């Protein structure tokens, strides 16, 4: 009977982690802790958000008394965005972060990341998604090119090819014919990267190597 039973599945979740502007210089320390805690860093990007982009990211906090200070703080300098993956990633990352108020975290969760790196309730060093659905929205915001759904097949795949792939390839091949570069394969590869229809639209971004 047990031989016929399917093996239990482990569903790997993804969550968004942000290293906030005031502790960007601690990036390597934080990453080391993340990796030692069993997470994979699927994507990473260093970027600086405008106040408007911060307002959009924290739209669910709009109208609260701390909202202006929050957007000013989050847009005050570069931050590091990461997509983390592991079993129950959302809850494990929240546990590793500790309470959102760093002062409280130092009393109740002294070994948490916010207790170690945060200053107070506003400058709490790091961000984590609150739920799986929130994680999907936040990952899309920071990594617009990320594929969060199953890869399309059948008619959906044909629609995607017709809408995005074929027009982009046609434009690239036309550009190759006009330019006549010495190494057309490398030139076309660079052109496709530059003209990727899913290229992130965030301003002032500094792309770093993926882990």
Automatic annotation (TrEMBL):
Protein name: Nucleoside diphosphate kinase homolog 5
Pfam families per UniProt: Dpy-30 (PF05186), NDK (PF00334)
Localization of this protein: Cytoplasm, Cytoskeleton, Flagellum axoneme
InterPro entries: Dpy-30_motif, NDK-like_dom, NDK-like_dom_sf, NDK_H5, Nucleoside_diP_kinase
All residue ranges annotated as the Nucleoside diphosphate kinase-like domain in the record: 12-150
Cellular-component GO terms for this entry: cilium
Keywords assigned by UniProt, alphabetized: Cell projection, Cilium, Cytoplasm, Cytoskeleton, Developmental protein, Differentiation, Flagellum, Hydrolase, Kinase, Spermatogenesis, Transferase
Transmembrane segments: none
GO biological process, one term: negative regulation of oxidative stress-induced intrinsic apoptotic signaling pathway
Family membership noted in the UniProt record: Belongs to the NDK family.
Species in which this protein is naturally found: Rostratula benghalensis
Quaternary structure, from the entry: Component of the axonemal radial spoke complex 1 (RS1), at least composed of spoke head proteins RSPH1, RSPH3, RSPH9 and the cilia-specific component RSPH4A or sperm-specific component RSPH6A, spoke stalk proteins RSPH14, DNAJB13, DYDC1, ROPN1L and NME5, and the anchor protein IQUB. Interacts with IQUB.
Main location: cytoplasm
GO function terms (MF aspect): hydrolase activity; nucleoside diphosphate kinase activity
């Amino acid at each position: 009977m047990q031989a016929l039973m399917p093996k239990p599945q482990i569903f790997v979740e993804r969550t968004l982690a942000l290293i906030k502007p005031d502790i960007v210089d601690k990036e390597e320390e934080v990453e080391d802790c993340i990796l030692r805690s069993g997470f994979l860093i699927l994507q990473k990007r260093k970027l600086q958000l405008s106040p408007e982009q911060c307002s959009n990211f924290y739209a669910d906090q709009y109208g609260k008394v701390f909202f202006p200070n929050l957007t000013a703080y989050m847009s005050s300098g570069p931050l590091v965005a990461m997509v983390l993956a592991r079993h129950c990633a959302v809850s494990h990352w929240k546990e590793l972060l500790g309470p959102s108020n760093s002062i409280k975290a130092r009393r109740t969760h002294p070994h948490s990341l916010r207790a170690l790196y945060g200053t107070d309730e506003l400058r709490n060093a790091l961000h984590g998604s609150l739920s799986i659905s929130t994680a999907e929205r936040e990952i899309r915001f920071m990594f617009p090119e990320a594929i969060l759904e199953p890869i399309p097949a059948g008619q959906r795949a044909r629609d995607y090819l017709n809408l995005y792939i074929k027009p982009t390839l046609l434009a690239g091949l036309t550009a190759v014919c006009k330019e006549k570069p010495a190494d057309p394969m490398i030139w076309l590869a660079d052109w496709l990267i530059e003209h990727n229809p899913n290229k992130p639209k965030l301003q002032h971004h500094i792309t770093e190597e993926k882990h």
